[in-house]
């Protein structure tokens, strides 16, 4: 298959896809794109705007995976928000505080675009949001997934590894990367942003071998 991996990060979702596919990855940050290329030397890596690349190249691929940025959708926006009605100096001093902001609608633009224009299989992934999703997703593995093929639920975080455990040891074990191989990056952040590799493989396997006649979830 020709696969497009958008907002690729260091490639958590791609880690177990193997090398039999022709994969193009798009990542905005050069230092992260460089690290992705080190891990997946056979992939074509592009440093650029994934949202725009999708619009211009979607028809060249058989399967598209997109993981748009999640900070404006995460529940942390509510849990750690700065209130305009009280003194927030202490909260900000302690490293907390998120100013109210608009959710980034690129997420829903891509879902709608893929649904109506792309002829292959596709998956859009994001965090569980603080608001009711505007388009109903599949919800499992601590993520939201929108696809045009049917997903079978998948338990993530087995083998005694709780998903809420974000210690260095647990993150590296769950995501399959060595701490020392991520020098030069915000290691905790890039690992937390990785989709679980086993979950990424599970979804690609379902796209390649559907479990039943496919219908849209919308």
Helical segment tally? 8
Strand order across the largest sheet: 3-2-1-4-5-7-6
- How many distinct domains? 1
- Percent of residues in helices comes to 25-40%
- Gross geometry: globular
* Class from helix and strand fractions: alpha/beta
Could you tell me the CATH topology label.
Rossmann fold
Order of helices and strands: EEHEHEHHHEEEHHH
Query: Over the alpha carbons, how many angstroms does the gyration radius reach?
Result: 18 Å
What's the CATH class label?
A: Alpha Beta
Task: Please give the largest β-sheet.
Answer: 7 strands, mixed
Q: Please give the alpha-carbon distance between the first and last residues.
A: 25 Å
Percent of residues in β-strands: 15-25%
- Give the second-level CATH assignment, the architecture: 3-Layer(aba) Sandwich
Whole-number mean pLDDT:
87
Compact overview of the structure:
The chain is an alpha/beta fold and 218 residues long. It has one domain: Rossmann fold, CATH 3.40.50.
Structure description:
The chain is an alpha/beta fold and 218 residues long. The chain has helices at residues 30-39, 50-57, 76-79, 89-93, 106-117, 168-175, 187-193, 197-208; strands at 2-6, 22-27, 44-47, 63-66, 121-127, 138-140, 143-147. The chain has one domain (2-69, 104-208): Rossmann fold (3-Layer(aba) Sandwich). The protein contains eight helices and seven strands, in the order E-E-H-E-H-E-H-H-H-E-E-E-H-H-H. The relative contact order is 0.17.
